[in-house]
Amino acid sequence: MTETKKRPSRGGRAARVQARTNPAPVYLPTLNRAVGPIDLLGPDGVEKIHNAAMTILETTGIEFRDPVALADWKRAGADVEGERVRIGRDMLMDLISTVPSTYQYHARDPQKTVDVGGAHSIFANAYGAPFVYGLDGERRPSMLEDAHNFFKLGQMSQALHVPGVLPVEPQDVPVPHRHLELVHAALTLTDKPIKGSVLSATAARDTVEMTRIVFGEEFVDQNVVVTSLLNCNTPLVWDETMLESLRVYAAANQPCLLSPFVLAGASTPASPQGGVALLIAESLAGMAYSQIVRRGAPMVLGVAIMGVSMKTGAPMMGSPEPGLMNLLVGQMARFYDVPWRSCTMWTGSKSPDLQAGFDSANTMWPVLLGGCNFIVHSAGFLEGALGVSYSKWVHDSYQLEAFHRFFSGLKEESLDALLGDVAEIGPGGHFLGTDHTRENPLLINPLQNNDSYEQWVDEGAKNADMVGRDEAQRILHNYVQPPMDADTRGALDDFVAKKRLEYQT
């Protein structure tokens, strides 16, 4: 009797279905913008805002509420009176002249390393919300498991370049070692570029030490592996906690997003030009100080711009004035030849609804048209940045793919072959079956529903929130943790365990 040979298994039908319905991510590179930027100001307008910012720093001055920073400024030759520092324009321009116009932002996986500055743009996750809108749609305090889940979603996203270090504030982790859990998770659950903790100087030092374990001390000293977010207290105050963290990161050659938090009409003048002059002065002062700490350390001019409702005083996203301000900030950053950061895809809405959609779109378009390099809060925010929604996170993530495609611009193509298709098909035909159509499909957002009403009803009549939650669950179910060398992982785990004990005593 002859034994029948079995054909080697390739996983069977179930595996093929799984591969079709849950394909591995195809990661998008740094966005190299081929559309824009828009310059609203002529040379005279740029000079007007520059002179206003310099006048603010020279005459009004800015408070550095930190004794070390005050001593540093005094040694550098600034006019220091109490906590008020007045910086001459020649000194300031000399200091920021050594800030690199671009830098490479390294990931554990070199294929996911990105570029910041110039015509490059990258998307980073939401940051710091105390609440989540969960997989069940309910609002509740955020937990460490949620932070882990958003790192996983960030790892699986094709368009999100930086999963961040603080997608939500885990309320179940004590503050003294919260940064340890978050940086450890960012480094192990993702292999994309990460952001650093600025909770304290200790948290900043621990972040740098953990990156040295993963990347190597010499590599970290010469390359960017982490970028951290520091907020100025607008108007005109840099506080001690932020400055302590800035010194740690600048000394380690790691950039910070030096970002005034602007409530236009409240913490800054309501007019776009006046508000931009103030925030430019604030951010440049922080950038200049970083160069006193270490000349040549990369830094990013940062802004976080919201309007204020004149009806309630609440923050307001998606209004036109912050959009105009972002266009102006982009033009000023190009004047100073430094990278810049802004915020997008946020909303005052409490669900992933129509308002959330138009608020998010209205914040993203001017930021990208303004040529922004480092775009924070690109996925998930609701409730004026107080909450992150699993559902909105995945909706936003797919929207980022569309923005990436649009701002990548036109592709090179020959029209001769297309003219041949037109001649062959002729009047009344269609192009669905042509080679060109198959090779150049339009981008499809898998969460958009373009089916008939009857089919939509048959499939559950799901609204945007329900569709997004289903998709978040699917992505989390298919998450694959990126590998890490066993010795490196062991050293990282040991460092965190040791520090946990140290901060508990």
UniProtKB/TrEMBL annotation:
<protein>
    <recommendedName>
        <fullName>Methyltransferase</fullName>
        <ecNumber>2.1.1.-</ecNumber>
    </recommendedName>
</protein>
<keyword id="KW-0808">Transferase</keyword>
<keyword id="KW-0489">Methyltransferase</keyword>
<dbReference type="Pfam" id="PF06253">
    <property type="entry name" value="MTTB"/>
</dbReference>
<dbReference type="GO" id="GO:0015948">
    <property type="term" value="P:methanogenesis"/>
</dbReference>
<dbReference type="InterPro" id="IPR010426">
    <property type="entry name" value="MTTB_MeTrfase"/>
</dbReference>
<dbReference type="GO" id="GO:0008168">
    <property type="term" value="F:methyltransferase activity"/>
</dbReference>
<dbReference type="GO" id="GO:0032259">
    <property type="term" value="P:methylation"/>
</dbReference>
<comment type="similarity">
    <text>Belongs to the trimethylamine methyltransferase family.</text>
</comment>
<dbReference type="InterPro" id="IPR038601">
    <property type="entry name" value="MttB-like_sf"/>
</dbReference>
